[in-house]
# Entry
Amino acid sequence: MDDATAVAQARAGDSEAFRLLVERHSRALFKLAYRMTGNEHDAEDVVQEAFLKAYRSLDSFEERSQVSSWLYRIASNCAFDVLRRRQRRDNPTDSLDVEDAPELAAATPGPHRLALGGDVRRSLEAALETMSARERAAFVLRHFEGRSVKEIELALGLDTTAVKQSVCRAVRKARQVLRPLAGTVS
Amino acid sequence: MSHVSEDDLVLLHYCEDAGEDAGAHVASCEECAARLRALAETLSLATAPDAPERGDDYGAQVWARLRPQLGLPELALESPKLVPFRRPLWPRAAAFAALAAALVLAFLLGRRFPAEPQPLSAEVRERVLLVAVGEHLERSQMVLVELANAPAGEVMNVAAQRTVADELVSSGRLYREAAVRTGDPALAAVLEELERVLLEVAAGPEALQPADLEKLQQRIESRGLLFKVRVVGTRVRERETQRLPRPVTTS
# Structure
C-alpha cells in the first residue's frame, strides 16, 4: 500500500493504514527531530507528537502533496515548538521574536576555546546552543536537511524574511566557532 | 556595485535568492568570490550530528505508544494461544488497577499528611495497599510465566503482554514508592527488579525475535525473578489475610 492510499484509508477510519505510515516514517522523523532538538528524549516526544497531530489533521492533508513532506513539515513544527519551549524555560525574559543571540554568542568564550581545541563536533554543538530557537530550526533545516527557504517557511510558519534572517544569523554564529578550524581540518 | 554583504553571500551559498545583482557581482569580483569560497569551506565543517540508531522495529514501538493516545481499541490478537491469558483478565484487571492506583495514592497522601483528618484508618490503608500489591504481583507473574514458557526458536507475538506490562510499570512504581515509605525494602527491591523486566517488555517490539526472547527468558530465569515474585506475592497475601477483620461470632 503506498502512502497516499494509506492516508486515504486512515481518513476512512482504518487505523491499520495509519499504523503503516507510523511504521514507515518513524525513523526518518526521529532523525530529523534529533537533529533539530539535539536531544534523544525530546526527539522521541517530537515523533510521538507529530504522528498525533498528523492523525488529528488527516482531513487537512492535500492529496496532491507528498505524505512524507507533510509528515516532515508537521515534525519540524513540533521540534520547533520544543526548541521554543526550551528557550522560554532557559531564558524566561526573552521574547520569542527577539533574536538577541549574536551578542550572547559574542560574549560566550566557550565555543571558541572548544574550536581552538580542534573538536569540530563539540564546537558545532556549542554553536547550536547559542542559537535562538528560530535560528537553530532554520539552520538545521537549511544546512543539514537541505530544505529551501520556501519549505522552511511552510514548516515553521514563518515568512521569507524571517527565515532568511534566521539562517544568516545562525551561519554567523556557526562561522564564528568553526572559522578557526577551517584549513586545519581536512 | 559595492561588495556583497555577508548575508547575501550566505544566501548565494545556499542557492537562495540574494537579489539580482549579488550573483553577477560575485561572478565578476575575485574578492567576493574568495569570500564565498571561504564561507563554503567553513560551513563544510558543519556536518549533521549522528542521530542515535533506531532499529527496524522502532516504528512499531512508536505505534504501540501512540495507539492509546489515539483512543483506538485494544490490539487484536494474532495468536489464539494468548486468548486465555488476556480475555478473562483484562476488563477486571484494568478496573482494579485504576481503583488500586487511586487507593494507593490515598494511602501515600495519608502517610505524607498524618495530621490531616483521615477517612481511613492506618490498618485499612495498609490492607488496601496489600490487596493492590498482591494483584499487581499476580498479574506480573502471569506475564512472566507467558514469557518464560514461550517455545524457544519462534517469533512470539507479545502484543497483549506489552499492553499489560505497560500498565504494570506505572502502577508498580507507585507500589514500590509505597513499599519504601512503609519500610519494606525487600518488597521494594523485587518490585524494582520486576519493573526493569516489565519495562523491557513494554518498550520492546510486538514481535519478539527468538534471540530477544531467549535473552529475556534468561534474564527472568537467571535472577530467579519468577520465584521471587511468587514468594513475595505469597507473603503479601498472607499479610493481607492477617489484616482481614475478624469474623463476628454470634454464639
